[in-house]
Amino acid sequence: MQAETDLDAIADAFEELLAAQRRLRGRDAKEVDGISLGQLRVLRALARDGAMPVNQLATAAMASPPSVTQMLDALEERELVVRTRSDTDRRIVTVDLTPKGRSRAAARRAAVRAQLEQSFADLPPEDMARGAEVLRRLAAYLDAL
User: Fold this and answer.
1) Angle in degrees, 0-180, between the axes of helices 65-77 and 37-49, rounded to the nearest 10
2) Burial of 39 (0-12, 13-18, 19+ CB in 10 A)
3) Which of 120, 144, 142 is closest to 132 using CA atoms?
4) SS3 call for 24
5) Which residue segments constitute the domains of the chain, with CATH numbers given?
């Protein structure tokens, strides 16, 4: 039955994607341009959403608050982020990009974008849209498990 075969193909491709993602996480500690992949997620979240408290940043960067705090130590040392305590509630620490951090995040985003464009240059827009929809459905599938 074709539908079963198609579902098997999606399931197999999804497993390949998850395996690649696990390998990527295994390389997370490797740094490219002085920034690990985990730190890059932090920088990208700040570049996309602006300054935010550490707990919110952890959610946006898909990491635990203690991991983000450790990443922020390294990023702050490199002058890529700045942390500011709230004047009204000293427990709240807001994180923002420095100009240097904003520039570094933009450069890495451009490099990633170029890789994506190269990887998908031969796909027509309708296939790209369909692929995005498949990925969203797979994410919903994982959330439902």
Assistant:
1) 90
2) buried
3) 120
4) helix
5) 32-144 (1.10.10.10)
DSSP, res 83: E
Distance CA 91, CA 14 (A): 41
pLDDT digits (tens, 9 = 90+) for 26-72: 665 566 677 888 898 999 999 999 999 999 999 999 899 999 999 99
Q: pLDDT category, 17, cuts 50, 70, 90? A: confident
Percent of the chain exceeding pLDDT 70 equals: 93
Q: What are phi and psi of 64, to 5 degrees?
A: -80, 150
Q: Which residues contact 19 (CB under 8 A, 6 or more apart)?
A: none
Q: Give the Cα separation of 81 and 104 in Å (integer).
A: 11
Place of tokens 């996480």: 25
- Token pair belonging to 145: 């498990």
Check: CB of residue 42 under 8 Å from CB of residue 75.
yes
- Amino acid (1-letter code) at residue 84: T
Query: d(Cα 126, Cα 83) in Å, to the nearest integer?
Result: 43
Q: How far apart are CA 69 and CA 134, in angstroms?
A: 34
